[in-house]
Amino acid sequence: MTGTRLKRNIPGCLIIAEGAAALAASCLAVHDTGTATGAGFLIFLRTGLLSRGAWDLLLDAMVLLLICAVVAVPAVLLKSGIRNAALYLLSGIALLPLVRPDRIVSPFMGGEVMSMGDAVSAVTAYMPLWILTLSLILLMHYGPGAGNERKTRLVILACISAALIVLSIILRPFSEIILFASGAVLLLPVLELKAGEKDHTVFLVSAVLFIRGMWRLYMAMALYHL
Amino acid sequence: MGKDRSFDLKRKDLRMITAAAQVILLPAAVFMLFVSNRSVPFMMDDIWYSTNLETGEKLGSLTDILVSQKWHYINWGGRSWTHGFLQLSLMSGELCADIINTLMTILLVLEMYIFAGMLRPEKAPAGKGKGRGVLCGGALCLGLLITCCPNFMMSMLWQAGCANYVYSSVWILAFMMVYIRAVDDAAGDLPFAKLFIVPLGIITGWSTENMGPASFVLAFLVMAHTFHKNRKDRRLIWMAEGAVSSFAGSVICILAPGNFVRKDESLEDLSLSLSDRIIQMFRGAGEYLFPALLVLSVSYLVYRRSTQSGKINAKTALVLFTALLSYGAMIASPHYPDRAAFGTCALIEICAVSLISGAADENGSTLKETAAVLLLCSSMFVMYSVISL
């Protein structure tokens, strides 16, 4: 009995392990990207407080807290469980526009603002991935058990996400952050994915997301590692 | 009863809306594909291939192409068929080449649709709605082909890329379809199979270094399966002919003297270490094949949930194995450009379309239609990004 239960839980445990590995790799990527782009240095220059190293570490901690919050808060609110939270994290790393730490700091420090043309180009470039994500979310939530209420919720989330994309063109200092938020909202239904007996298919999806996510983080580290 | 009727009406309405959207979007997408082709001029390798490679003069006749391909085979590389077609298209001029590219892409999409239909365990009910099925299937395949293409511009629009990947995929898929069809015992012999399978096998094997051998393995496996079931099956004759000819084509392509000349003359260090090769393959899975793999895995998830057994059939497994082989073959290559993943992506997408169609048929939903419309929109954004460059 216990053996069968354990066997049934293996895919879920593997997804959680993938999520943990991706989170660990994110820590390294955030640190490398943050220090290489001089996000901490920018704060140090503007405030004159502490040292560059201290700001770098504080920034790392802040970005990682943000990542955890983006995953944990909706997961707790939707009571989705650890497996789905890990899947949401993996989806995010694989599919969302990755925002450099200096881009988070820059709008608050009076940094350069993206031009209208650049913001529109960023949205145009992001659209195929956004639509692909939307298609996949629709497919994932499709099934005999999918009720009208869930379908309505999917439509509402897609509309909010689309509105955020438009907002990213208007509020250009926060353009990248808003695009990230738009993707995060679109991916929220991942947290509601039902765990069934055929759980290993979800593991297959997570494995593809994991490979993609690790590749993206590896590339970020390869590019920014000092 | 009344509740059921209102639900049916809603589904019917959605089906009508998606069908109308496809009728508008599909021709628009094809038109955009042509415009995208127009926006990418002959460039880079195209300029070189526009000349007689031996003399350096501008191409003027079929003899020039034959002479060029002989020189190319000895001095540069083994893809004589694809480069021969490339030179033919280059000789016809930019407008004509763009029309050919668009037509070949449409042909490839139709093949993908038919191929996906072959993989399904049970055929969709014939007759009513068949035209709509073709429209939807075509839209889904086109949307996927462009959205999940690892490098749309260099694989499908650049003339050399289009000839190497789109054109060659047309005959590679045709070859594979002949064998996949033969897995069904009920499917009879194709007319003239004995005649066309040999040239088709040679041209398939002699296409690209990864897809050619992978096609041979698929042919061999189907032949072994047929032999195992019935040693006296008459189809074994043409199956063997096709397998041998594709193997011969692959050998001719890979062992071309030009491949070795080019390797010796290359200034780049092509001797990759094991870790470099692993990273190269990691990049292949994590970047080039990622959208197609994600669509496939999610399609499988939907298929498992929608069907009773949830198991994929032998034909789909065979095609996926071929895709895996074509990907795995790249570990032997000193360089794995994103373009080279085109054929593998096409095979993965065919399986995904088959699974989505299977799931949608099972419970008569509008899932396939909705996905087709969304993917068409997505492909239009991809094309727009090239046109606006």
Helix content range of chain A: over 70%
DSSP helical segment count of chain A: 9
The number of strands of chain A is: 0
Structural class of chain A: mainly alpha
Query: How much beta of chain A, percentage-wise?
Result: under 5%
Q: What is the domain tally of chain B?
A: 1
Overall pLDDT of chain B: 87
Biggest sheet record of chain A:
none
Brief account:
With 226 residues, chain A is mostly helical. Chain A has nine helices and no strands.
Give the arrangement of secondary structure elements.
The complex is a heterodimer of chains A (about 230) and B (about 400).
Chain A: H1 2-37, H2 39-47, H3 52-77, H4 81-95, H5 101-105, H6 116-140, H7 148-170, H8 175-186, H9 200-224
Helix pairs in contact in A: 1-3, 1-4, 1-9, 2-3, 3-4, 4-9, 6-7, 6-8, 7-8
Chain B: H1 2-39, H2 45-49, H3 62-75, H4 80-91, H5 94-119, H6 130-147, H7 152-157, H8 159-183, H9 193-205, H10 211-229, H11 235-254, H12 257-265, H13 274-288, H14 290-306, H15 314-328, H16 342-363, H17 367-387
Helix pairs in contact in B: 1-5, 1-6, 1-17, 3-4, 3-12, 4-8, 5-6, 5-8, 5-16, 6-16, 6-17, 8-9, 8-10, 8-16, 9-11, 10-11, 10-15, 14-16, 15-16
Please explain how this structure is put together.
The complex is a heterodimer of chains A (226) and B (389). Chain A is 78% helix and 0% strand. Chain A has 226 residues and is mostly helical. Chain A has one domain (2-224). The radius of gyration of chain A is 19 Å and the shape is globular. With 389 residues, chain B is mostly helical. Chain B is 76% helix and 0% strand. Chain B is built from 17 helices and no strands. In chain B, helix 3 (62-75) crosses helix 12 (257-265), helix 5 (94-119) packs across helix 6 and helix 8 packs across helix 9. The N and C termini of chain B lie far apart (55 Å). Residues 1-7 of chain B have low confidence and may be disordered.
Entry keywords:
heterodimer, A: 226 residues, mainly alpha, B: 389 residues, 0% strand
